[in-house]
Amino acid sequence: MKLYIKNMVCNRCKMVVKSELEKAGLEPVSVELGEVQVKEDTIDGVKDQLLESLQSLGFDLIDDKRSRIIEKIKNVIIDQVHHHDNHAKNNLSDVLSAELHYDYNYLSNLFSEVEGTTIEKYFIAQKIEKVKELLVYDELTLSEIAFRLNYSSVAYLSNQFKKVTGLTPSHFRQVGRNKRKTLDEV
């Protein structure tokens, strides 16, 4: 049986969800961001207990198709921004269409309708959070960060960063440790 789980954004989330499934007496076959395959055909006997334990940890079970699609869009974007060092300039609309097997216009309209923001704005917010993370680590120059996140120039990155955060990247680097958000808060 396949389960869809909201707010899984990292490998630690996968470990926590797997642990909760096992505590509920389920046997996870695969655990991916937002999607879990369990050996059992039904979870009816443990669904309430599982839902309660997942919600206490900031997760949630997703039952309807539209919410599953939205969660998949978010997971693909998070994966692209935070877990891949893509130096190739992949078009986000092409990546989403290929991964989710839907026309991008449908995905875009659905996302905007349900989330109240565009896919592009969500993507930018994720990129800015990644920039914040890299600035706080203080291991890369702004030029290296711009290259890693496929910005066309340092100036473009700086302008977008200031528009979103109200701070320049260099000022954020000085005060930034308290300004980062967790990925599910973006």
Give the secondary structure arrangement, pairings included.
Layout: E1 2-6, H1 11-23, E2 28-32, E3 35-38, H2 47-56, E4 60-62, H3 65-82, H4 92-100, H5 104-115, H6 119-137, H7 142-148, H8 154-165, H9 169-175
Antiparallel strand pairs: 1-3, 1-4, 2-3
Helix pairs in contact: 3-4, 3-5, 3-6, 6-8, 6-9
Can you give me a brief rundown of this structure?
This protein is α+β, with helices and mostly antiparallel strands. It has two domains: 2-63, 2-Layer Sandwich (Alpha-Beta Plaits), CATH 3.30.70.100; 69-186, Orthogonal Bundle (Arc Repressor Mutant, subunit A), CATH 1.10.10.
3D structure, described in words:
- This protein is of the alpha+beta class.
- It folds into 2 domains: 2-63, Alpha-Beta Plaits, CATH 3.30.70; 69-186, Homeodomain-like (Arc Repressor Mutant, subunit A), CATH 1.10.10.
- Helices cover 58% and strands 9% of the residues.
- The protein has helices at residues 11-23, 47-56, 65-82, 92-100, 104-115, 119-137, 142-148, 154-165, 169-175, and strands at 2-6, 28-32, 35-38, 60-62.
- A 4-stranded antiparallel beta sheet has the order 2-3-1-4, with helices on both faces.
- A hairpin with a 2-residue loop joins strand 2 (28-32) and strand 3 (35-38).
- Helix 3 packs across helix 4 (92-100) and helix 6 crosses helix 8.
- It starts with a strand and ends in an 11-residue tail after the last helix.
- The model has no long low-confidence stretch (mean pLDDT 89).
**Largest sheet, order of strands side by side?**
2-3-1-4
What is the class of the largest domain in the CATH system?
Answer: Mainly Alpha
In the CATH classification, which architecture of the largest domain applies?
Orthogonal Bundle
Tally of separate domains? 2
- Broad structural category: alpha+beta
Helix count from the secondary structure assignment: 9
Biggest β-sheet description: 4 strands, antiparallel
Q: Say which CATH homologous superfamily of the largest domain is assigned.
A: Homeodomain-like
SSE pattern: EHEEHEHHHHHHH
